[in-house]
């Protein structure tokens, strides 16, 4: 399994930011991972991680032409975007021989993603959205690429070994994990939880 990490500099979040405070209230900042807090974030529109457009790094990656795509043994390259939210990155990654699955535990997020992506689907882009738990969802096949944008930092650190195992279970042997990390430090709670690059 190959991996690519795109990291920003570590920083301490402004914990007085009302949206961060509200997200932490809704999620609870605990190791227990449930859909309820995430659903409430989407229903209340408290989604400070949602840029309202594809992540600029994704756009750059797609435009660079270096992202795998096209026929792989007569089929499209498959991509998983866990924690896809409103689906901006799912749509941006689709096309050019790639079929992308956006996965989110929040039905409200998936509903929003489907609504906003309807025009792109009509243009022939190849993607689907699934409301399911990342840790228990069983897709029909493994993926060629998994793209993680801030999904990792949404988990309490004790859950990260389970994240790593699940990524390995969902990714093909010769697949590629691409991660875009938000390096938060000095957090007493989350999400986002503390994330650091260990050298």
Report what the structure shows.
The chain is an alpha/beta fold. Helix content is 31%, strand content 21%. It has 6 helices and 6 strands; from the N terminus they run βαααβαβαββαβ. Strands 1-6-5-2-3-4 form a 6-stranded parallel sheet. Helix 1 packs antiparallel against helix 2 (35-44). It is globular and about 50 Å long. The two termini are 20 Å apart. The relative contact order is 0.21.
| Low-confidence segments | 1-13
Helical content stands at 25-40%
String of helices and strands: EHHHEHEHEEHE
Round the mean pLDDT to the nearest integer and report it: 79
Q: Helical stretch count?
A: 6
Question: What is the molecular shape?
Answer: globular
Task: Specify the oligomeric state.
Answer: single chain
State the strand order across the main sheet: 1-6-5-2-3-4
Structural class: alpha/beta
Percent in strands: 15-25%
Number of strands: 6
Rg over CA atoms: 16 Å
Intertermini distance: 20 Å
Task: Present the secondary structure layout.
Layout: E1 2-7, H1 18-27, H2 35-44, H3 56-64, E2 77-82, H4 88-93, E3 98-104, H5 107-122, E4 127-131, E5 143-149, H6 160-170, E6 171-181
Parallel strand pairs: 1-6, 2-3, 2-5, 3-4, 5-6
Helix pairs in contact: 1-2
